[in-house]
Q: What sequence folds into this?
């Protein structure tokens, strides 16, 4: 799955290119935070957490070597019922889009390159994702505002406790700070993937996110 610097870059690009209002976003802070929400309770990036929820449940994904989160099912369940969806929900949907797209591209790439599933492939893929993320310009911190804490508590898939919101905010902001400190001006040689892989995956994820959010606003 994409590292949080990649998720941050997608969220910041959407806001910069389209404008918050066109995306149906009034609270940009909550939208940015939403882009991390599905990973909070998985137990890898945010510690400590008050509860653990299986990746398959948080990402609406079937068990698989490279899972494909079902962002369309998430949209039907948690976006469509709202006349004005909470920004945290829209951000979480974008997260699932990105995970789905990057993982689908990885599946296709591994098949063509005859890379067999296993720990080496998993570690290499995630390492390359992290390195690519360091080439992206991200700068926005999220804040544990009362509005964000309220949206998180009311997140329709599962409530997010205030202590976990604060821990996730700290983790997200640490990613931004680390990216600034260790930014790469160009992509170095990668372990498994290629620059073309990341160009295609980034463009596809960006396109699906913007078409979904802009299209919802046009149809509303």
A:
């Amino acid at each position: 799955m994409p590292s949080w610097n990649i998720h941050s870059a997608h969220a910041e690009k959407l806001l910069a290119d389209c404008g918050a209002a066109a995306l149906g976003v009034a609270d940009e802070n909550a939208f940015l935070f939403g882009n991390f929400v599905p990973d909070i309770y998985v137990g890898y990036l945010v510690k400590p957490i008050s509860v653990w929820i299986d990746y398959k449940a948080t990402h609406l994904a079937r068990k698989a070597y490279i899972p494909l989160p079902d962002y369309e099912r998430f949209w039907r369940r948690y976006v469509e019922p709202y006349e004005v969806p909470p920004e945290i929900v829209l951000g979480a949907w974008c997260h699932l889009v990105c995970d789905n797209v990057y993982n689908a591209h990885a599946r296709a790439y591994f098949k063509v390159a005859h890379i067999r599933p296993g720990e080496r492939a998993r570690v290499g893929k995630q390492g390359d994702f992290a390195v690519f993320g360091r080439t992206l310009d991200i700068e926005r911190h999220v804040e544990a505002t009362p509005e964000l804490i309220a949206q998180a508590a009311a997140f329709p898939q599962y409530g997010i406790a205030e202590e976990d919101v604060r821990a996730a905010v700290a983790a997200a902001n640490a990613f931004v700070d680390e990216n600034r400190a260790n930014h790469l001006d160009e992509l170095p040689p990668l372990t498994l993937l290629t620059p073309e892989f990341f160009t295609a995956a980034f463009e596809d994820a960006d396109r699906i996110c913007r078409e979904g959010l802009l299209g919802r606003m046009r149809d509303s």
